[in-house]
Amino acid sequence: MNRRQTIPKHLRLTINDFNRRFPDDDACLEAIKEMRFADGYAPCEKCQQQRKHHRVTGRPAYACDYCGSMISPMAGTIFEKSSTSLRLWFYAMYLMSSTRCGISAKQIQRETGVTYKTAWRMFRQIRSLLSEGDMQLEGPATVEIDEMYVGGTTKRLGAIPKPKTTVVGAVERKGGRVIARVAPDATKPTLHGFIKEYVLPGSVLFTDEHPSYEGIEGPHYRHYRVRHSGRVYVTGSRGQIHTQTIEGFWSLVKRGIGGVYHSVSTKYLQSYLDEYSFRYNRREKGNLIFNDVLERVSERVGSPLAAAVHQNPVSQEDAF
To answer: Are 249 and 227 in contact (CB under 8 A)?
Structure first.
């Protein structure tokens, strides 16, 4: 047994596999076309019906076999109007999906030779595909809920104090899915609102002794608490009352932000949480998470969120 390789063979997508699958821009374009227009059949605006399309030599477009009008598989996607090589886009998605703690835009700049501005915008637009805002943790389930705080006040003399950003998260014990959201605070209305929005009724809730969780129990939820202030971390007759799972996810996020990005502003924090949650929710797929990221390109065609990213200015975070 090779103890150095922890990913099963059928879940691996090595860099050599990636290079064989996507050797150039044409292969990447063909992959997008097949996702959006299977077997080359696409709606032709001029013919007003589904028509077979063929590749136009020398152009990233496909022409209708009947009337010759052209379509582009990249139209409406995050690749539209980008002068960056499609293969570099795919490589960036591959790296983002293959790492546990994330990879910085600065590292992509070093590896590919694009400018930092280009690398940052690529990552920003790829992250716009990874949001799962409509997901709910299914009930009846056992769900752990906890909050963490990002950033905050520096202790340097004369420095302007900066408040910490609150993040609330919930994770299923059985399904293993996680939801993490930036929150305005950790008050009772905020935490209760988060639970009611993302955790279906009938679930069993495990939290710490934060006073804002009081009163959530009732006809819709069963609620158990762990008294961390008394250095109690696991309790119950079978040791089932704890919040270790969500805290494990928080440690993953904190290591990534502290070790890879160093600092993330409140403005962009949710997109980073979406990236970590997307990978965590598909961790059983190994390196094949890349396929899920690639599928999101066609699923989110023309979405307002993806379009809005083009207008965002470049941030100084993710600079290492």
So the answer is: no
pTM: 0.85
List, in order, residues 6 or more apart from 188 with CB less than 8 Å away.
Answer: 211, 212, 213, 214, 215
> What pLDDT, in 10s, does the model give residues 95-104?
999 888 889 9
**In angstroms, how far is CA 209 from the centroid of its own chain?**
29
The candidate with the shortest Cα–Cα distance to 151, out of 261, 278, 265, 238, is: 265
Domains detected in the chain: 15-36+75-132+281-320 (no CATH), 38-72 (no CATH), 142-276 (3.30.420.10)
Q: Is the dihedral of CA 92, 95, 97, 103 positive or negative?
A: negative
Query: How far is the C-alpha of 195 from the C-alpha of 191, rounded, in Å?
Result: 6
Q: Is residue 135 left, alpha or beta, with left meaning phi > 0 and alpha meaning psi from -120 to 50?
A: beta
Q: How far apart are CA 160 and CA 155, in angstroms?
A: 9
- Residue whose entry in the numeric block shows the structure tokens 């030779």: 113
In order of 176, 177, 205, 242, the CA distances from 141 in angstroms are: 10, 11, 9, 15
Tell me the two tokens of residue 64.
Answer: 């209708």
* Cis preceding-peptide flag for 60 (omega within 30 of 0): no
pLDDT 10s digits, 128-172: 999 887 788 865 678 999 999 998 766 666 667 778 899 999 999
